[in-house]
Write a structure and sequence with these properties.
Elements (H helix, E strand, L loop, with lengths): L5 E2 L2 E2 H29 L4 H9 L2 H4 L1 H15 L3 H32 L8 H14 L2 H9 L5 H29 L4 H4 L5 H4 L23 H6 L5 H5 L7 H24 L5 H22 L8
Antiparallel strand pairs: 1-2
Helix pairs in contact: 1-13, 1-14, 4-5, 4-7, 4-8, 5-6, 8-14, 13-14
């Protein structure tokens, strides 16, 4: 094994640090999940806003990855394939945003009510979301280094593949566990009696009921995509290990803030947050290593 290799654009020490923090969080939460929520839970307007729209920054990685694929494939003479994948990356960002946050955005902008408001408001909302993801492609077209087409293709493919796989794995695990959310438990007369640890799974109980989709955190699956940011920075012009590390620190700060928000807003327990982060992180690391097997730090 290459001890000097990079994982997701940063050194192995960074990778192990993230895994260690998530593991410690899981161990702590396994004993004190409910008590932690009792101390930290407090719904606020600012917290609600960040919970609804904070993942926008993670979704920007999809169109950026599409631009990596476009530039790499165009250099190899496959412009049409690159264009299709560029549009695919942009569409994934629009689709996921509309699916998970579209209703909140329609309400925020237009006070939209299904069946009552004009359907054109919904179309306008979709167009606004679509426009919000144009800038990552434009920025990528300026910053990405086209010298190594193979690397651009590998990085773009890794982000798209890992993102889609992580989301679907998370959806399956939510059904497998069907764990009650804290915000649902506190509506009951005896919340503690209905509380379940993450390993006390009742497969397929959740169905379409969001109250039983606490573990693992889907929002953390999205937020943890930010750990791909250093890998993306590694295919830009004037790249450096320092820039990669700064991107890693930004990702860490964002994930920690978002994780706290999920607990603070009564949506998840600590173990939900840590598992959501760890599962996504490991999937992204595995996919990136499979596509970038010779990712090495300079000696």
């Amino acid at each position: 094994m290459n001890l000097h290799g990079k994982i997701l654009g940063v050194s192995r020490k960074c990778f192990y640090a993230v895994v260690l923090v998530c593991t410690l969080g899981i161990l702590l939460g396994s004993f004190f999940d409910f008590q932690i929520n009792e101390k930290l839970a407090n719904v606020t307007k600012l917290g609600s806003f960040f919970a609804a729209y904070g993942c926008y920054f993670s979704y920007c990685l999809y169109p950026a990855a599409g631009m990596c694929l476009y530039k790499g494939l165009k250099k190899k003479g496959f412009s049409m394939a690159g264009t299709v994948l560029l549009i695919t990356g942009w569409f994934l960002a629009v689709y996921y945003t509309n699916t998970y946050s579209g209703g909140k955005l329609r309400d925020l902008l237009f006070h939209y009510k299904a069946g009552e408001s004009s359907p054109w408001l919904s179309v306008l909302n979709w167009m606004i979301i679509a426009a919000l993801y144009v800038w990552p492609m434009l920025l990528g077209s300026k910053l990405l280094d086209e010298k190594d087409a193979d690397r651009l293709i590998a990085v773009g493919a890794a982000i798209l593949i890992a993102g889609v796989v992580s989301d679907n794995v998370n959806l399956w695990l939510k059904q497998l566990a069907s764990r009650p959310r804290y915000k649902y438990l506190i509506t009951l007369d005896n919340p503690v009696s209905e509380f379940r640890n993450w390993w006390q799974m009742v497969p397929n109980l959740a169905g379409s009921n969001d109250s039983f989709k606490s573990w693992p955190s889907g929002n953390m699956t999205i937020a943890a995509m930010m750990f791909s940011l250093p890998m993306l920075a590694d295919v830009t012009k004037k790249r450096s290990e320092g820039r990669n590390f700064r991107c890693f620190l930004v990702a860490c700060a964002f994930v920690l803030l978002y994780g706290y928000n999920r607990i603070h807003m009564t949506n998840h327990f600590l173990t939900d947050v840590c598992f959501g982060t760890l599962i996504t992180y490991l999937i992204h690391a595995l996919v990136s290593r499979a596509l970038l097997p010779t990712d090495r730090l300079p000696k």
